[in-house]
Amino acid sequence: MITTGQKIAIQRTAKSRLPETDLENIKFGRVFSDHMVVMDFEDGAWKAPAIMPFGDLKMSPAALVLHYSQTIFEGLKAYRNVNGGVNLIRPKANIARMNRSAKRMCMPPIPEDVILDAMIELVRLDQDWIPKGDDAALYIRPFMFASDQYLGVRPSDGYRLIIFTCPVRGYYSEPVKVKVETHFSRAFPGGTGEAKCGGNYAGALYPSKVGMDEGYHQLLWTDGLTHKYFEESGTMNVFFNVDGTLVTPALDGTILRGITRDSIIKIAADEGIRVEERQVSVEEIEVAAKNGRLRSAFGAGTAATIAHIQSIAFNNAVYDLPDVSTRDLANLVGTKLDDIRRGRIADPYDWVVPI
Ligand code: COI
């Protein structure tokens, strides 16, 4: 049995890779810190987590995850704060969301406090991997997969949960060009759209590649039934600033319950900005773009925080949006969120977990 507050077993790496790593020049998701957390679910219970050197896994080619994609993941970040310490941001929200994903994917719930303790310990151990600079952070990737060696289609009995971290800088170097997708679908009612499961991302690869071949960075996903309402932007939630009102699709089961989305909504509302979570029609946004009332649009996610949209291609027309330097609302909210993360201003929301 595992309990909270237990001292976690740590096997340190014999030789850190940090001295030979150039933290100034890193590509998102290509560089991995020294250690990882590993925790197994066996015989109906989670075993104690352990921290060990980051390294390859030994697994059966018949592991269920490799065939039927029973796997979920999360993404969150730790930031260097103004006092030189480290702030983990909203880890409890990520862990809670992971448990929602686990339920949908027929996986066992994870013990939230145990995972939080293990995550804190991991970040503490590898904190020197956080690069310096305003755009830098440690990206934390918890994930869980079905480990049974079996080809029958059924939920696995065994699972492995791993957490590793990556030093990261900005995700997108420039505002993105997007296309409204009205043929392919990312999600549909009753499906897995809300869960952060690997299959959602795999299914989006081909439509995204088609869009990229046409010259777009990302797709603006629309609902799977009618293609009349916006859902997400690439792998992120989407926001539109129409005449100073921040509009975003409501969470309806097909949309990821974005934690950055939630932070943006709370900060914007507290800044006195009108925020609307509702169905957002493609037609309404196209009309607003045509009439110059669409002041900005952006994707929101952990990796990029805010990914400004430069232009939107609708079926028959492409609209360029105002220059990023004029996007007061998005810039205000983004700056405020960053100030909270880095401890430059007080955190009234209890999002920061100093470690
Ligand atoms: C995020 O925006 O944080 C994501 O989930 C993207 C990730 C798949 C790299």
Description:
The model has no long low-confidence stretch (mean pLDDT about 95). The protein is globular, with a radius of gyration of 21 Å. A hairpin with a 2-residue loop joins strand 2 (about 35-40) and strand 3. The protein has helices at about 65-70, 90-105, 110-125, 200-215, 260-270, 280-290, 330-340; strands spanning about 10, 35-40, 45, 50-55, 70-75, 75-80, 85-90, 135-145, 160-170, 175-180, 220, 230-235, 235-240, 245-250, 275-280, 295-300, 305-315, 320, 350-355. It is an alpha+beta fold and about 350 residues long. Strands 1, 2, 3, 4, 5, 6, 7, 8, 9 and 19 form a ten-stranded mixed sheet that branches. It has two domains: about 10-170, 2-Layer Sandwich (D-amino Acid Aminotransferase, Chain A, domain 1); about 175-340, D-amino Acid Aminotransferase, Chain A, domain 2 (Alpha-Beta Barrel). Helix 5 (about 260-270) packs across helix 7. It contains seven helices and 19 strands. The longest helix is centred in the middle third of the chain and has 16 residues, at about 200-215. The structure holds 2-OXO-4-methylpentanoic acid. 2-OXO-4-methylpentanoic acid (COI) binds near residues 302 and 303. The site of 2-OXO-4-methylpentanoic acid (COI) has 7 residues, from loops.
